[in-house]
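Hi there,

I know you've been waiting on this one. I reran it after we fixed the sequence typo, so this is the corrected version. Both the input and the resulting structure follow.
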Amino acid sequence: MAQPIPKFRVRNFEQFQHYKDRNPIWIKLYNSLLDDYDFGHLPDASKAHLLAIWLLASRYDNLLPLDAQWIGSRIQARSPVDLNGLLAANFIIAEQPVGDVASELLAVCEQVAIPEKRREREEKNREEKKDVVQPDNEAFEAWWKVYPRKEGKGDGRRAYAKALTKTDAATLLAAAERYRDIPNRTMKFTKMAATWLNAECWSDEEPDVKLSEAERIRADYLDQLEREETDLRRLGDGERMLPGHG
């Protein structure tokens, strides 16, 4: 049989009450707290936690489980709640001897699963799984085959998965082909796969074909020279075959 979770109360909680006959939606707080020696010697985090615990106690008729994790979740604490420190400073009072609480608290917390905390953990796990997109291996391999720089495949695969949350595989493949076919592109100025994907370069405009106009003119000129040389060679061969030119 599971042991009951120990409980605690806030010391002198009646001084924080405004209404005596119903659950208050707020509590009183006196500026004399700034003169309290014991409060002043609490760690800053514990001071903030204590104020939140006072608010929480107003919702539970000043009877709370002595479970630091549960308390932390209810007051939205971003650092561990030190209930033992608050017990030692006598700001909270256990419903059973402190020595018994200290020896039993850890075991009880490990044995008793708090449904609310479990639900929060399960929801967080579901959200984390949704954020992880597993790329289709075949689609990635097709993209990798096209992409012109074959370095950093592991980083590229992870960046590809991230990119799929923003676009689709067909768009990535077509953009990689455009990038591969840019005229005069050199490996020195070719982005690593992960860099290209993380920068969302698939959304870049297609390269301006006018950038390669000078190269096309040069290629046409060389082709023309080659044709002229071929014609001259043919003409020379024809002249040697005429009578009297043997």
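Quick highlight: Residues 98-114 have pLDDT under 50 and may be disordered.

Best,
R. S.
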